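Students often ask why we bother predicting the structure of a whole assembly rather than each chain alone. The short answer is interfaces. A chain on its own may look different once its partners are present, and contacts between molecules only exist in the joint model. In this exercise we take three input lines together and write out one structure for the complete complex. Read the inputs first and try to guess which parts will touch.
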Amino acid sequence: MAATRRRRGVNADSLPRSGRIARSVVLALGAVAFLFPFYYMLIGSLQTKLDSTTSGLLPNPANLSGTNYVQINDRINLFQGLLNSGIFTGGVLVCTMVFGLLVGYALAVLQWRGRGVTFALALLVQVVPFQLLIIPLYVLIARDYGLADNYLGMIIPFAINSTAVIIFRQYFLQLPKELFEAARIDGASELKLLWGIAIPLVRPALITVVLLTFIGPWNEFLWPFLITKNQALQPLAVSLANYITNVAATASNPFGSALAGAVVLAAPVVILFIVFQRYFISTDIGSSVKG
Amino acid sequence: MRRRTVLITAIVAAGAFALTACSGGGGSSGTSSQHGPITIWYSNNEQEVAWGKQMVASWNAAHPKEQVKGQEIPAGKTSEEVIGAAITAGNAPCLIYNTAPSAVGQFEKQGGLVDLSKISGASSYIQARSGKVAEQYKNTAGDYFQMPWKSNPVVIFYNKDMFKKAGLDPNNPKLSTYADFIATSKKLVAAGVAPNAILPAPTSEFFQSQFDFYPLYAAESGGKQIVANNKSTFADQDGYDVADFWATLYKDKLAGQEAYNGDAFADGKAAMAIVGPWAVAVYKGKVNWGSVPVPTKEAKPASDVWTFSDAKNIGLYSACKNQGTAWDVLKYSTSKAEDQKLLELTGQMPLRTDLATTYADYFKANPAYKAFGDQASRTVEVPPGPNTVEMLQAFRDAWSKSVIFGKQDTKAALDAAATKINTIAKQP
Amino acid sequence: MTSTLAERQGVVPSSGGATPGRGRRKRRPLGRNPLGLLFSAPYLLFVLAIFAYPVGYAFWISFHDFFFAAPGAQVARPFVGFTNYVTALTDPAVLRSFANVGVFLVINVPLTVVFSLLLATALNKATRAVTFLRISYYVPYVTASIAVVAVWSFLFNGHGLVNSILGPLAPSPSWLINDHWAMPIIAFFVTWKQLGFYILLYLAALQNVPKELYESASTDGAGEARKFFSVTVPGVRTATVLVLLVSTVTGANLFTEPYLLTNGGGPDGASTSPVLIMYQKGIEQGQPDVAAAIGVVLVIAVLIIAFLQNRFAGGRD
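Now the answer. The structure tokens for the assembled complex follow.
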């Protein structure tokens, strides 16, 4: 379905030549605007000595080295940080996948009292900024649940991504009802329906949701920063934020070190995204627009 | 059937989780007679980490049953945020060797600190070690919720090479009065030796005023606290003069309005810096520096100049179970021998009476620190109480607007800040 | 208001759960209803604990003299009515932060809508290098703010690349410490960072615009520009409403950028945001009660704006 919808080009041919050139220029300019800071990040992170003039735009072999990265690794255990980020993000992914699929299925396929209210709640959660909840959540999780300095405490506020729930619901809604009816008559349980029929049919949604959900905890700074006091437990975003704001100033090239930190943090997501980008297609999200 | 079992198991598991989660909270506080292993935090700069590690190692070697786990203070923009959050969560360590006096009032109000005065012999220990200076660290009721530990009396460092290049005398720089300081700054910038004469952080964090206004006001007023008896004192002629002095530096582009992401003094972006004794170790081999006391309006002999203390103290936190051990470690780590190690490893000044005579050998061997040792007896602390941070923030906001960015008359801004701080000071 | 709403909504499904709906299968006397509830129970529990309860708690805090205390410490927390709201709303710094978000939205929302629709339309018709273009557009969105903020401050600081290129044309004081430029720079930054997501939304919406509309417009002799305004723009209105809504919420959420890019809302409060003030008051200055009051005001403001946007831009959809 997605494939046929994306087949286009009819309109492209209708454009006159000048229009096509204009379009290409717009697209190219956009790409430059989006990619340039990343290019500059990489160059800056490799500069032994800061060069913020225009000549610093091009790599100068005499001024390139991995010093900034070495300096970071001396202060931060990058591997431990990556591992912590991985556990944090992984926990969120697992919870979102398991419970998000369940509730998405229930919202789309099953008839039960409270369905509308649950869906409304999922929407409301999106409107209220997370930062507003931080103070009460902190008291609740760190204090009442005693989960400070604990992976669980890090994961809980993000455990089930409501956007994921809405996307799942949308996908399950698009599945033909007859499929389920037939299977039910054969005596299949709802869990089996979900696992055996519904999930295999919405595989593209799963990948979209994994990517969308991944971005949140991987990049999250404020919450894990508040909840973890033990350096050995801090995700990379937190230890790098600390490095960039506090420690980089004492490095030999402060900006270079901050940029090297930025590269380390950005690289895993960008690589992951490039590898999986073909699944991250517009129609997946699009279906939630109509929700 | 199997499905239902799975579901029931899931629900029971969720319920059990919720129950255990709920019962996990609520820390029981210890008493001063309990002994056993404890955790401590120390500051995250290289020198203090070295001191902390050796202190912990030597304690642990002698006390196998009361092991201390030392850790760098966790990440955060300021240590105070981290400590405040840890108090609320009930997971603060026993001792924090980086407790800022500006935050102690708030921590006390939160119930996060142990009243040291209630530990037998503690008050006399503190007073015997620190002498009269200790008075500044009592709360309004006269109790110690912090152990005065070390200070970083603030002075002016200048780059001798830059002074020479600008044609100025590197050994007798003219920096003692406001007029001289500004004239010297102009020469430095005009000569192009550095883009800034001096560059204190021009950002709006509440604590930044401790490194521009505070030391100069202490010097100008002869050691006056900015808030006394719940009333601001700084909106007086001394305060106006200090503000005008800095405003001139900013207006004439002798000091930059944008924070430098790095160490401006080390990187040659500023010819002078306003620093504490930690700077001696930091700039060793990087900058050929000299030091002078902070300037005053009319020249004063160096022995009369007061400054900001930039003290860091030790707090004993109420989440601590083995408070008996914690107090013993506290005493151990502030003993004469450990204070000497602190001095040697960090160059920071233990808050001890008669520093210069107690550690005479050290100051003889390290003349660079002598200026700080002398200055250590004439330092001013931030106002005590639970609202210190709010007061300092109100002050900083006014300072930023008027002095740094010149959008308001400095006198009017200080007057307005004084009125605001008077209201804040009256809050419980 | 918001919290009571949330609580009421949160409570309904759990209390009404046992009621059977339209019983259907004979194998299950309770019908399918309880199962849906069971499937949703973890999520509902999650929303109650992580969303509804904190919202309610924040609401409660905002009406009391509240400060953080160590576990076990005995402290009085009297009810103080609207005192915290009065304190918050008479504080010029708080009002300034709301005004700043206003500036942010005025710049960010139109830029976001225009650029994302423009690029999405162009990308939709592109035939070459589509994968490369798509990656380049989405990369800022998937990268952590903290990482890209470092580059932006490298680019826009007084001695940064932008000023080296501009030379004498550079603003004085420089961008991030200029009170006319600090907030716009943050708005540009957020626009740049989030644009990929909105392009994605518009791309999806563009798939749903019937091709026949373009064809009949062509038959009527409409040019590209005309088609864009008479077919594309109305065709993606639902997405536009969503973009408006999401960017408003993003604006209300603004924290990391002023915290890191302008050193805590500088210069002189010109780039503070309500959430940043909440953080300063709540976490740094020990006044979570005032912070909570700001939060409640902010949520109400967002809900009102969202409602209005939906009402006027969304139409009957």
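Check your guess against this: Residues 50 and 411 of chain B are 45 Å apart (CA to CA).
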